[in-house]
């Protein structure tokens, strides 16, 4: 297994190289530059020209790429044109917020989806199953950003239960109050993200439970007098988790990649909001770094899914 993991990681190296070239070229192909309008709308063109020259933006793309790669291997992703600070420090500070949001969203997603999927499959065709299916259909049909806007309006403005912007209160002091304030700001976007994220898991799990409870090994267990509770716990549930486990790696990394909508709507200072702002300001160094990180996370998600699947089902081994 470890040899296979090492081989997969080695295969990822040329993929990351190709990804970095494509990302760098696409970022450079964007119209405009990072200086026009960011200094002064009436700035002297000569000043803009000077800034472009000293930052190497007039160099050939392959020379700019080579300089970027050399700095990358030294742990230097360059400086942000907009925020005037190292990209590594800027992304690191935002990554903590995104990680907290992704972690809470993932926990809530599986805490809601797993019991709902099993319950719907166990009571196939009955009222609880119908209610859960209607919920999944309605949620699936509504765009995610609409769910976020409706959630902010109801729970943020009408009821006033949760804050609608930021990641922590500005007047917070003490580590305990800091953690409490952070979770208070995270809960609404995490709950809304979890409600949207449960749809596919519930549908997959419901279908797998229905198929599993009609299988021969379940019939055999019932004939031997095994209690229904034990059948669902030890036989049906574990076998039904296989397709869910196959997508678990993608789900984990997808939460880190797919927080752009959530962070933008909630003005949550994470990597997603940083990415959107960087595109607006043509902040090439931040754009290339973030897209490269997102690409690497997707590659790692594939490997992580295989590892999780092999852990859930001992019959499956990565070879």
Automatic annotation (TrEMBL):
Its main location: membrane. InterPro entries: BPD_transp_1_N, MetI-like, MetI-like_sf. GO terms for cellular component: plasma membrane. It is a multi-pass membrane protein. Keywords: Cell membrane, Membrane, Transmembrane, Transmembrane helix, Transport. It is found in: Cell membrane. One of its GO terms (biological process) is transmembrane transport. It comes from the Bacteria. The keyword Repressor does not apply. The chain crosses the membrane at residues 9-27, 99-122, 134-162, 182-205, 241-266, 286-312. Residues 95-305 form the ABC transmembrane type-1 domain. Pfam families: BPD_transp_1, BPD_transp_1_N. Belongs to the binding-protein-dependent transport system permease family. This is ABC-type dipeptide oligopeptide nickel transport system, permease component.
